Amino acid sequence: MSTSDVTREGIRGAHPGREALTGAVSTLDGHRRDHPSRRRVRRGEPEFRSYYDKPVLNQIVWEPRDIAGYLFLGGLAGASSVLAAGADLTDRPDLARPLKYTALGAITGSVAALVNDLGRPARFVNMLRVLKWTSPMSVGSWILAAYGPLAGAAAVSQATGILPGLGRTAAVGAAALGPAVAAYTAPLICDTAVPAWHEGYREMPFVFVGSAAAAAGGMGMATAPVEQAAPARRAAVLGSVLETAALWRMEHRMGMVAKPYREGRSGGLMRAAKILTVAGAAGALLGGRNRAVSAVAGAALLAGSACTRFGVFSAGVASAADPKYTVVPQRQRLEERKTDAAISAAKAAASSPSPGPEEPSDS
Amino acid sequence: MPADSPHPRMGFFTDTSVCIGCKACEVACKEWNAVPEDGLNFTAMSFDNSGGLGADTWRHVAFIEQRASVGVQESGVGRPDGAAAPVDLGMPSFDKPGDAAGADERGEFRWLMSSDVCKHCTHAACLDVCPTGALFRTEFGTVVVQEDICNGCGYCVPACPYGVIDKREDDGRVWKCTLCYDRLGEGLEPACAKACPTDSIQFGELDELRARADERVRHLHEAGIDSARLYGRDPDDGVGGDGAFFLLLDEPEVYGLPPDPVVTTRDLPSMWRHAGAAAAVLLAGITATFLGRRR
Amino acid sequence: MGVRRLIQSWPVYRQFTGGDPSGRGGAAKSAASARLAPRTSRADRVVKSVCPYCAVGCGQNVYVRDDKVIQIEGDPDSPISRGRLCPKGSASLQLTTGSSRRHTVLYRRPHAPDFEEIDLWTAMDMVADRVIATRREGWQDHLDGLRVARTMGIASLGGATLDNEENYLIKKLFTALGVVQVENQARVCHSSTVAGLGTSFGRGGATTFMQDLQNSDCIVIEGSNYAEAHPVGFQWVMEAKARGAVVIHVDPRFSRTSALADLHVPIRAGTDIAFLGGLINRVLTDDAYFRDYLLAYTNAATIVTDDFQDTEDLDGLFSGFDPDQRTYDLNTWRYAGVDIAPASGDRDAHYAERAGAPQETAEAGRPEQQGSGGAAVGGTPETDPTLTHPRCVFQILKRHYSRYTPEAVEEICGIPRDLFDRVYRHLTENSGRDRTSAFCYAVGWTQHTVGAQYIRAACVLQLLLGNIGRPGGGIQALRGHASIQGSSDIPTLYNLLPGYIPMPHAHGNQSLDDFVAADAAVNGFWADMKSYLVSLLKAWWGDHATADNDYAFDYLPRITGDHSTYATVMAQLRGECKGYFLMGENPAVGSANSRAQRMGMANLDWLVVRDFSLIESATWWKDGPEIESGELRTEDIATEVFFFPAAAHTEKSGTFTNTNRTLQWHDRAVLPGGDARSDLWFTYHLGRIIRQKLAGSTDPRDLPLLHLTWDYPLEEGQEPDAAAVLAEINGYGPDGRPLGGYTQLRDDGSTTCGCWIYCGVFADGVNQAARRKPHTEQDWIAAEWAWAWPANRRVLYNRASADPQGRPWSERKALVWWDPASGRWTGHDIPDFEADKAPDYRPPEGATGVAAISGTDPFIMQGDGKGWLYAPAGLKDGPLPTHYEPQDSPFGNLLYGQDRNPVRQVHPHDLNRYHPGPGDPGAGVFPYVVTTYRLTEHFTAGGMSRWTPYLAELQPEFFCEVSPELAAERGLTHGSWATIVTARNAIEARVLVTDRMAPLRVHGRTVHTIGMPYHWGPNGYSTGDAFNELSSIALDGNVHIQEVKALTADIRPGRRPRGPDRLALVRDYHERAGITVRTGTEV
Ligand SMILES: Nc1nc2c(c(=O)[nH]1)N[C@H]1C(S)=C(S)[C@@H](COP(=O)(O)OP(=O)(O)OC[C@H]3O[C@@H](n4cnc5c(=O)[nH]c(N)nc54)[C@H](O)[C@@H]3O)O[C@H]1N2
Ligand SMILES: Nc1nc2c(c(=O)[nH]1)N[C@H]1C(S)=C(S)[C@@H](COP(=O)(O)OP(=O)(O)OC[C@H]3O[C@@H](n4cnc5c(=O)[nH]c(N)nc54)[C@H](O)[C@@H]3O)O[C@H]1N2
Ligand code: SF4
Ligand code: SF4
Ligand code: SF4
Ligand code: SF4
Ligand code: SF4
Ligand SMILES: [Mo]
């Protein structure tokens, strides 16, 4: 029955329509069905519900070629600058030269890929409109803005022989920024809601710098005379080990979200990366002094590094496309929180005697 | 929120328990914002042919058919004995109709409808990660993309934990609900809320809306509608509470919402630390390669 | 700009100098954002308007800048909509300014493969020539010796989307031309409403207004999908719910309305009378009726003639049935002790007796005349206040419904007994002295071969429960189009004149007085019909209408039977009707049996289509389904086709009458673009040109046209001034001043009035329909918002909200009451009663007219002042609603030997075959029940939604809804295609398998329902097969409405065959089911 009246004075007791209830009034003589809330689960799968199996997240709009390429090239450039500066300082000109060129080429390619991926490439400069610590892409843009000219100056001076002093200084500067260039792309992708990326944010920078070192090492092995390439080989081995170990740890810590790193297209890329990287590292270790082996191993390392980036990229894509990667971990988190809360509530109740009479607890 | 803001924070309380699924909100939004029509896609997802939020759908009405009931609502759609065996609908319901066609299952049915929108998060990942400042927080505490700035880097898209913001392919920029920023400036109600025939979408000062929503849930619980819950209302949740929050009648994921979203940038300091460490490792490692015997 | 300024505008600079170091707030704000303002703030003007889609009539604000409409949104002042708009209302900017609208006139020559563009005035001239020629060819001075003075060569269809003023001019012009086949959507939509409500209460409009639903204790929505078809009106149901009202939805499908109801009751389509009869039976047997109300205000106590025999006695037939004519002799249904048979909606049936002339015509559809007036009763009927007399209405009612038991309801409707019981208890516990319940229905009830009786059944129930005329009570007939109520009131309908005055039938030497004597009531307000009619004739023929020539009564052409739109289609198929105007209607999609519609059009000499875009009815000759199937070839079709682009609601001024019977004025915001013109413009100029061409003619056939008052002031763009037309509708007094109300009308030629029930809309020379006092400044009645007929009342029969002594039945249900101090009726609403007629007034001996209505009789339009539980006349199929099965049904009638409505109207034709009756082995070939309905996102035949991308994308494809069980039975796959077949045609649709379609247990077996929205057709942006390919022309005999809410079909997986194979499939079904042209047409 309505609780409002139409009196001679007008309507009394009105309520706005937004207070309407559905499913509250079918209570004739207390007729109220009590439904045990039945929830059925699709057999054989963890309990998980979604909206028509649609992803919760919107899909990554980045072109794999552009953005995975950008990650790879950025890493290659950054690590190359460090190696090149080392080579400069330790007087390995034949190692330094190709790596300086590599750094410039790679960073140019990296930036070009990034710009190419923009929906409005003409507005690239807007990247420097603000400086936001909360945005790895913003931070990265500023880093690139500083690094790019240095890497360029180093390479140009190397090639032309003009202002060699300044060129060296530039090379050192680029080397100083190089690790940042190689590393910032990890927060860049991890600072998203993409489960396979975000969940790996602790290890991802190590994967990336490892991969970068391997790539730069590989590049050094492929381009420098074997005599001068020892640091490159060491860098390659070191990088490969770091990348592989970090990846291993990452996958193990991520739980079910690691699946895309093992399955499907992204899993395939990751396996290819592993094989190429291990093979390249082995080549560096065992056959590094052989020019041909060195060249092949270097190429394998480069390819391995590229596969890692493409693999990570496509694992992210796959994890964003399947709602279970979003829902299941969050559900688990909620359940854990609930249990934790229950435990601490129980503890609190046990430690502090309740002032009133004890309430019966049924759960 | 900017300190110079004279405005209280504005937001939405979308009470899905009074939604009639009319989609006026979707259309009113498109008309006001001149959002492009995005094609004829028959989805067979109940009455939802918009699919989800995106660059061209800033309000999205979800339709969920379930074998469960709202309170003591009597759906009447029980299956008579002797009806033929049901088929697999390929539908999202977690149990396919007929899986449990026991007598006790008779008549349990409900059709949930819910209008989704950008949450205007307190801690908005999209806004945090935007490298251009195209996304910014307005004086109303809302999160808005500035179409004259966005360069379409696409970063905000995977950053949003709710799958809201998206890139419009032929335009190159990203788009989402602006909470009708232009209208708010003149003291007007957002177009979707204004149109909503049943006030399912309630617009106002966030504090007031939160109080109203708390009262509403209490009311629903008293009436025996136990499944009612607020989503995005809690300022302590992973995104610091939503500027647009909801009253739902089932778990969020059933509506396509993440059950426990966390703004990704909450972990960013740690990410920077890890990245810094990794960079240091790289520098040290490569430096180390030059040490030792020259071979 | 200096470098300094440049740097200062750099957000990074602002970041570090302003208060926004993180760069996420004000620092990042762009110049464009700083300049942002809503485009509405730049509007030059805001024009008040009304949504052009449905009959809720939501207020709109139209924002105009540089003479372009830049935004349309809800008008917050409106008491009806409070600023809200559904998706359609919200899409009206795209509807009116979108690219799908046409702006040029198109012409198709006979046999030509395509349209060509032609000049507007040339086209007008050509149409005028064709009208003149075809009118002549089809002219009939006499028919069977009776003067008819008409042409059957021309027909017109459409009006519900148009303004009242446009309908008025169309009816006026075509009547003067002698065209009687003037019809609009009201026929196919709610014609049974007018008959059902009119015979029961006296007026054919909804008894209440949507906003008053907020005061209901219980709302039963049955035969309506309220939340989807009237979404913004549904806020008043929500308002009632918020206050604790129970909401019940009785519907074959679980719809968006059901989702918000407390109780959804699935019912087999086509069985509502059994269900309502079950409720009536239980109310009677449990004594749950409101006895005081029943005794005082209904005809429960009235004694019926002893000639009367009930369906109880005759196995489903009433007395007086003539199986050869398929008609009843209504004389055996009369009240006892009243000499003259009561006149009724079907008043002409008694013409002979009442006018003392021999009766010549039998077949006519008159009950809609009840739109505003009840039937007449001469003399005072005998009554038994103890309600025990065996022939009193109450006892007849009891007997009639005694077999409508809960068990019968369960067996027939498929509604389990406990569910039935729950509805019964909610309803009865929320009715009576202190509580009121409302019924809301729409076309789920009207569109049946027993449509009028569905509504009657609700009337009976609501009268028993004492719910009529009271706050929160009543019956809300949710009307369809923006002005379909208006196009019934000012009818572009063949059988009515404005204000529900009947169109005169052909009779020998019929004078105005004969006509009035036969058709007008003796008592009640209909007794003044002559004043209404003479004022109308004066409005139309001015000085040419004089007392000497019976006020030009003979200028009115005469009808001789059924000239409804479906009869016209049959006439087209026979080649009798040669010219056709479609003014805002799309029969090739919206009308039953669309194939027959198109085949009829293919027989025309010429066709004029006025619409926004190229709807199916305009292009069938080049791309219709019959072209695809090879049945027709474009080059063989001789029909000339003219397409005129129509002006939108924002481009013209005028009034819409919404479902609350409220006339709301909308102002023109901009002039229409290109060749688009208003229908007012078209009708006016067409009339002007024809009159010019015939000027000087002395042919008596042309005089009605030449003498017609046809001077309207022209505004910009030569658009006639709609306000002037509305003022003519309102009428003028002898002093030339606008009249204030219909009680001022006189039968001596001193007053004019284009529609008597609208008299008062221009009271004091003020356009009352344009009043817009915000709802926040008024009570819920909102009497100062626009204007409602009659006399601005919002709740009809509101005298019944007070007890016989004039006190509210309950202080929580006070609406109007007698104030002894002032000697007047007072209250919230305008009393639907003579203001100073005291409750103790008793008519003096021999009183007639209004004076014969006592101070306790709330139903002032009825001859006896009572609400009619039993309709002693007015309906052709019985005085009491009786359950009959639909034309096409899988089941026989469980209650009687008579399966189907014996006086339903069938049109046997090769193109219009019916399914075998129940029991016939062939019936099993079409085992499933099909019902049709609307979606929130689309509008009717799609002309205003399928071309509108924002709407089309929301429901992009035609689909059918089936239960999982039916899907399993027929191998249908969710999301893929199915073919649905009837004896008429085969169509395809996408499949939605859903629990919302519940299989029902009927007659001891499971029956499945297939649900299909009917909005699609082959043209437009979103396309699909038209549902109405499947429906047949099977009509309610009272009002000729088609049965599209309950039919049968077969369904199979996969797409339908293409080309000739499509009809081959249908023929194959004919053979399997043994269908001939006569199948299913037996009584
Ligand atoms: N969105 C939208 N709104 C509209 C329109 C539109 O096309 N779209 N059209 C307008 C027009 S012209 C009209 S007339 C109104 C119509 O308004 P409604 O009558 O509400 O519209 P429908 O959906 O045709 O039918 C109503 C319901 O009747 C049910 N039904 C079918 N058969 C039966 C039966 O035998 N018994 C019972 N009890 N129910 C039955 C259907 O399942 C459906 O849910 O809507 C108007 N408003
Ligand atoms: N199977 C089935 N069939 C049905 C029904 C059903 O429920 N089921 N419902 C029936 C009902 S209730 C109705 S009302 C009919 C509706 O059937 P129709 O009236 O044939 O359908 P609409 O699409 O509304 O057609 C109206 C046309 O008028 C045009 N129009 C709008 N405004 C104007 C204007 O100002 N001037 C002019 N000249 N044109 C204008 C529109 O563009 C549109 O094309 O369908 C009926 N048919
Ligand atoms: S919901 Fe997504 S798009 Fe909206 S403010 Fe939050 S993060 Fe940004
Ligand atoms: S796409 Fe536009 S809004 Fe999104 S992060 Fe990039 S610049 Fe910012
Ligand atoms: S607030 Fe404005 S922009 Fe956001 S969904 Fe509503 S109408 Fe669209
Ligand atoms: S407008 Fe309101 S009622 Fe309609 S779908 Fe949107 S939220 Fe629901
Ligand atoms: S279609 Fe009807 S309910 Fe919707 S806005 Fe228009 S008038 Fe209102
Ligand atoms: Mo209608």
Question: How would you summarize the topology of this molecule?
Answer:
The complex is a heterotrimer of chains A (363), B (295) and C (1083).
Chain A: E1 5-7, E2 10-12, H1 64-89, H2 93-117, H3 136-160, H4 164-190, H5 195-198, H6 204-223, H7 230-254, H8 259-262, H9 264-287, H10 291-321, H11 323-351
Antiparallel strand pairs in A: 1-2
Helix pairs in contact in A: 1-2, 1-4, 1-6, 1-10, 2-3, 2-6, 3-4, 4-6, 6-7, 6-10, 7-9, 9-10
Chain B: E1 10-15, H1 24-33, E2 59-66, E3 110-117, H2 125-129, E4 135-137, E5 143-145, H3 156-159, E6 166-167, E7 174-175, H4 181-185, H5 191-195, E8 201-205, H6 206-222, E9 229-231, E10 244-248, H7 268-290
Parallel strand pairs in B: 1-10
Antiparallel strand pairs in B: 1-8, 2-3, 4-5, 6-7, 9-10
Chain C: H1 3-8, H2 11-17, H3 31-35, E1 45-50, E2 59-65, E3 68-74, H4 87-90, H5 92-97, E4 105-108, E5 116-118, H6 120-137, E6 139-143, E7 146-157, H7 164-177, E8 179-183, H8 185-189, H9 191-201, E9 218-222, H10 226-229, H11 235-242, E10 246-250, H12 256-259, E11 263-265, H13 272-285, H14 291-297, H15 311-314, E12 321-322, E13 327-328, H16 351-355, H17 393-400, H18 406-413, H19 417-429, E14 437-441, H20 443-446, H21 451-464, E15 475-477, H22 484-489, E16 496-497, E17 501-502, H23 512-519, H24 529-541, H25 565-573, E18 579-583, H26 587-590, H27 594-601, E19 606-611, H28 616-623, H29 625-629, E20 640-645, E21 654-657, E22 662-666, H30 679-694, H31 703-706, H32 722-730, E23 787-788, E24 816-819, E25 824-827, E26 905-906, E27 928-933, H33 949-952, E28 959-962, H34 964-970, E29 977-981, E30 986-993, E31 1000-1002, E32 1005-1007, E33 1009-1013, E34 1034-1035, E35 1047-1053, H35 1061-1073
Helix pairs in contact in C: 6-30, 7-30, 7-32, 9-21, 13-18, 13-21, 25-27
Bound molecules: ligand MGD (2 copies), iron/sulfur cluster (5 copies) and molybdenum atom.
